[in-house]
Design goal:
54 residues; membrane; 89% helix; transmembrane helix; rod-shaped; mainly alpha; transmembrane
């Protein structure tokens, strides 16, 4: 669940950052995809750490 939430959050943040920088649609998609992947990895590690500690 943490991974999905962070993935969606990352996609939205990436899209908004590209919009702030006046990027076109492809820039927004690229930023959204990159942030989605990055935040997904962070979410995966958080999930593993929580699973190990609990």
């Amino acid at each position: 669940m943490i991974v999905i939430i962070l993935a969606l959050l990352g996609a939205v943040l990436g899209w908004r950052l590209a919009s702030k920088r006046d990027g076109d649609r492809m820039d927004k998609l690229q930023y959204g995809a990159a942030f989605l992947l990055g935040f997904s990895v962070i979410g995966l590690f958080l999930t593993l750490i929580i699973d190990i500690l609990v």
